Amino acid sequence: IAKLHHGFHKNPIMGNRVLSLLSKALNLAELWGYRPNHSNPCLHVAKFPEVKRERFLTQEEIARLMVSLEQEEAQCQNPWTVHAIRLLLLTGCRLNEILTLTWDEVDLEGQCLRLQDSKTGKKVVYLSSSAIELLRTIPQVDGNPYVICGDKEGAHLINLQKPWQRVRARAGLDDVRLHDLVRH
């Protein structure tokens, strides 16, 4: 296990995630009686140090991002991806909070989102006038409760990685992750 973990020395965060996953699997094996108690070999493998990364967009970068989103929208590959990225930028919500946002959670009168199930539990996200205007322009699809609709009927969008790669490359923001659009 130490050799496997060390094999990720060029990508330490991935190595740590692999170690955590393997450790969890082996702990479950103990719990279910497939391994003796306290026999998890991951226990003494030291994780790589991780440096938290904080990246905030400048006003000029936000302007380039907005131009790139307009270009993506004009190509009309999938308008829901553009809506999702704009909502991430304007609300500070986490990616999954936006992708799973339902119209029932949108309170335009109260100018907020009333999230039922976020990473931190129920929460209220207050909206700027720009976010409210954006939500008013997003069409509601009959039979689909989600704000950001997916390809399957009645489902939400699952992944933004490919469109995000196009948008950020066009904007010259190769070092910006979707997570960087979230305000903490």
- Give the amount of beta strand, in percent: 5-15%
Unreliable spans are none
Task: Please tell me the overall pLDDT.
Answer: 91
Total number of strands: 3
Helix tally?
7
> Strand order, biggest sheet?
1-2-3
Through-space gap between termini: 34 Å
Summarize the structure.
43% of the residues lie in helices and 8% in strands. The protein has helices spanning 2-6, 12-31, 59-75, 79-91, 95-99, 129-137, 161-171; strands at residues 106-107, 112-118, 121-126.
Descriptive account of the structure:
The chain is mainly α and 184 residues long. It is 43% helix and 8% strand. It contains 7 helices and 3 strands. It has helices at 2-6, 12-31, 59-75, 79-91, 95-99, 129-137, 161-171, and strands at residues 106-107, 112-118, 121-126. The chain has a 3-stranded antiparallel sheet with strand order 1-2-3, with no helix packed on it. Strand 2 and strand 3 form a beta hairpin. Helix 3 (59-75) runs antiparallel to helix 4 (79-91), helix 3 packs across helix 7 and helix 4 runs antiparallel to helix 6. It is globular. The mean pLDDT is 91.
